[in-house]
């Protein structure tokens, strides 16, 4: 999968291969200028953008895979945010809350159905009403 950006010197399009890192060292193929790109979007947004681009480019299977991964990363983001928000009014430090989340998340990281269940519970606990389908 590719990220598209523009060279800050000449403005030409530069394609970068997607990596889990948020920091990319790049060189422009047109002018040879080197630059560093820092992606400040959450992972689910990057994956969604890649899915949309794949769909526009005619790669339906890749788009579906990117959208599914984006959905899972969004679930993780929401559940993490809800659990950390819940810890703010307690004696527990943010580091302890984050560590507790990580140790719990490892049990569901590769199981979409369990992640969906955790999302439904986190939503119920945060919003006070069930997640509507």
From TrEMBL:
This is Uncharacterized protein. It comes from Deinococcus lacus.
